[in-house]
Amino acid sequence: MLIYLISVLSNVTILLLIATQKSLHKPMFYILFSLPLNDLVGITAVLPRVLVDIVTQEHTVYYPTCVIQAFLIHMFGGGTLFVLAAMSFDRYLAICKPLRYHSIMTPLTVAGIILLAWGTDFILILVLFLLQLRIRRCRNVIQNMYCSNFALLGLSCGEDTTINNIYGLFITAFMQIVTIAVQLFSYVQILLTCVFNKQSNAKSKALNTCLAQLIVLGIYEFISMFTIITYRFPDVPSHARMAIGMSTFIILPVVNPFIYGMKTRDIRVTLLHVMRRKKTSPT
Fold this sequence. Notes:
The protein is an all-alpha fold.
């Protein structure tokens, strides 16, 4: 429960800072707003339900509730990738095309980027779960601590789920290839700009701005890869597999706010300013 409260408090703090502080009303932070929002979706979809099951010792869930949880979990996974890609593209424009940045990143463009990230994620995951409608259910036991597309397919009556599996692999590959390609292009261009930029302060600002995003991406990809590997080897104990799977929805929502709070100067300065203002305000 403490982990959940820390995650909610820290992510809500980032959301409130961006929403209320005019110094953060910039394209970069409008896009960043989606990340703590996505983290709240991920950890809220999983952790409270697991904690309730542990406390009550009841391990039953209504099927519609299970589907909603699975949908939100998959939305969280894809949302992380798409939001990070959108953020990297924003940093590419800001660092590599500074003179054209504000003319390109208009409110309409920013809204379009955010809508594209969330909309693509939503449509891909919606189709994934619509394919569940063609499957008849004969089982009622899920071999996991939380619901997922894979777990729901395990409830089928032994029907052919090839289409579901192929589409699931397709959207996983699509999300990874597209988002990693965008980020690879953006960060290579940023690196080249830093190398050829003679102003050391510009290099330092650019690297600090992008470092937080690269750390988050590295953590996400490492955890995801480790989770996939554990499911590919049947010898891995089920409890270990479940624990690793749970870490996907716990680690990033907890560490992301602290990573961005420490590595993003504007957020750090704004938070300290708000805290000092609260202390010095008359009672």
